[in-house]
Amino acid sequence: MTETIRLSIAGMTCAGCVSSVEKALQSVAGVTTAHVNLAERTALVAGTAAPEQLLKAVKQAGYEAAIMQ
Ligand code: 9UX
Predict the structure, then answer these.
(1) Using an 8 Å Cβ cutoff, are 61 and 10 in contact?
(2) What topology does CATH give the domain 3-67?
(3) Ligand 1 atom closest to Cα of 13?
(4) Distance of alpha carbon 38 from the chain centroid
(5) What whole-number distance in Å separates Cα of residue 4 and Cα of residue 11?
(6) Structural domain boundaries of the chain?
(7) Radius of gyration of the chain (CA)
(8) Of the N and C termini of the chain, which has fewer Cβ atoms inside 10 Å?
(9) What is the mean pLDDT of residues 36-49?
(10) Average pLDDT value for residue range 17-33
(11) What is the pLDDT of residue 69?
(12) Ligand 1: distance of its center to the CA of 13 in Å?
């Protein structure tokens, strides 16, 4: 089932960071869309990806993430 997962992201300071995090999230299997809001330090991810895989991808890109829900 498709669902939307909200993440809090720490460590982003510019639009380049936003792009890196979005790319990392979009590369996870099952992700249909990933949008990062720099001002809010959040990401909205839609699709069927497992939350743990999203956290792992963000960490591998060099940022910290947590599930908000
Ligand atoms: Mo902007 Mo983010 O130059 O790692 S891309 S700070």
Answers:
(1) no
(2) Alpha-Beta Plaits (3.30.70)
(3) 6
(4) 11
(5) 22
(6) 3-67
(7) 10
(8) N
(9) 98
(10) 98
(11) 74
(12) 6
Q: What ipTM describes this predicted complex?
A: 0.90
**Cβ of 29 less than 6 Å from ligand 1:** no
Q: What are 46's strand-pairing partners?
A: 4, 33
Q: Tally the C-alpha atoms within 13 A of residue 46's C-alpha that lie toward its C-beta.
A: 4
- Quote the mean pLDDT of the chain: 97
Angle 62-25-15 from CA coordinates, rounded to 5°: 65
CB of 7 closer than 8 Å to CB of 66: yes
**Pick from 18, 20, 30, 38: nearest CA to 54:** 30
- Check pocket membership of 16 for ligand 1, CB cut-off 6 A: yes
- H or E element, residue 4: strand 3-10
pLDDT of 47 above 90: yes
